[in-house]
Amino acid sequence: MQQLSGQDAMFLHAELDGLPQHIGGVSIYDQSTAPGGKVRFKEILAMLEDRVHLSPIFRRKLAFVPYNLGRPYWVEDPDFDMEYHVRHIALPKPGDWRQLCILAARIHSQPLRRDKPLWEMYVIEGLNNVAGYPPNCFALLLKVHHCAMDGATGTLFMNMVHDLSPEVQHHGDAPPWIVERPSKIRMLGKAYIDAWRKPGQVVDMLRESLPAVRRIREGRREERIHSIDEKPHTRFQGKISRHRVVEARKFDFEEIRAIKNTQPGTTINDVMLTIVGGGMRRYLEAKGEMPRESLVTGCPIDVRSAEERAAGGNMVGFMNVAMRTEITDPLERMAAVHEEALSAKAYAEALGPRFAVDLTDVLPGNVLSLAIRTASATGLAEAQTVFNTIVTNVPGPPFQLYMCGAALVDSISLGPLMPNVGLFHIVYSSVQDKKGTINLSFTACRDMLPDPDFYAQCLQDSHDELRDAALAPKKKKRAKKNKA
User: Fold this and answer.
1) Could you tell me the pTM of the whole model?
2) Average pLDDT over residues 317-335
C-alpha cells in the first residue's frame, strides 16, 4: 500500500460533477511499418500484458480511508482485467479529422470509474480521410487520472509502451504479483498518527516560508518581480459544462526555434505563449469581447529532482504569466512575454519551487475536499479570476517511436479543465519521421468555445503573423544578397 501525496489527493478532490480530472492524449500510427503491414487488436493487448509490470499505474486502484479521515491509498486490484481498460472502436465514414476530435472530446469528457485502476485506452480505427496522414492509420486514445500521473510521468509511461524500432521487444518475465488487501484499521491508525503530526508540519512550513517572504519583497524592490494586479474576466471563466471540444495545430520545431533566436534570451516557451496569446486575442476580438487588460495564463512547472524522475504521481509548481495581449505587434508582445516569464520564474524561485507540493501535504484531505466542494456549490470558485487559461509544456521523446511495429506519426494531448478555467492548452514537442514538431492542442468547455475549428485557425494565424514578422526580414536580406 502506498498513500497518495497531498498533491495527488488534491487532483482527486478537485474532481467535481462535470469536471473530470484526467489527462490523456491521442496518438496516430502508420501500420505500413508493422510486420505484414497491419497491427491487430490482440497484438496490442499482448504487448500491454507483457509490460504491465513496468508501471504501477496499470494495476493499482484507490482504497479510501473510512470517513475520509486521511488521504487514500494505492492498492493492487485483485480483479484487474486488461480487456476492460483497452477498448476497440472505429470512426464512422468518412473518418476525417473533425470526427476524430469530436470522438476524443466525448471520451475525454467522461469520468473514470474509481473502483477500477484509473486509466482507459481506446484503439480507434477508420481514420480513412484525415489529410496529411498515411492511409490505413489507427489512433490510440489514452486517459489517466491526474492523481496517478502528470505530464512528465505521462511521457515516461508512453515510452514504456513503445519501442525504438518496428521490432517488438520482450521485457522479460514479470516478478511475482503480490496483492495486499487494504486494512481499514491500519488506514485509520495511520490517519490518527498523521493528525497529530499536522500541527508540527504547519509550524515547520510557516517557519520555512519566512525567508521566502523576504526573498519576494527583495525581488519586488529590485524590480525583478512584479505583481499581476488586474486579471480580466472572459468567456472562459464561469461554470464549466460537462461537454468538451478538442482541436490542435502542428508547427515545425526548427521554425519555432528560428523565431526564438531573433530575440536574445527568448525561449521556446516564450514563443508558444506569444502564439497562444495572439490566438486568444484574435478569437475574443472576433466575438467583440477582448478586454483592455492583458490575459493571464497559469503555467505548471515540474519540480522533481533527478532522483524523483521515475516516481509516479504529481510534483508540480505553478507560475502566473501575463501574455501581454494588449500589445498588437507580435514581436513587441514576444519581448514583453519574455520579461513577464522572467518575473514569474523569479517569483517561483523566491517562493520555493516545492511550495505548492509542501502546502498540499500539510492540508488534511477531508478539509481540502470540503473547501473545494463548498467553493463550487456556493459559486466562490467563479467569483475571482486567478488566470484566464492554462498553458503547459510537455516534452515528448526526441526520437521515432513504434507501437507493435507501427510508426508513431502524430500526437496531441488532452488536459483537464479547472473551476473557472474553461480552456487548457498543451504544447507537446516530439520527433516523427526524423522531423521535430510542436503540437499545440487545446481542450475547452463546449459552451464557452463552441467553434473549436475557428479558434484553432486563430492559433494558426497567430503563429503565421509572428513567423512572418520575425523571419520575413531575414529572408528578404538573404534574397538581396543572392541578387547582388
Assistant:
1) 0.91
2) 94
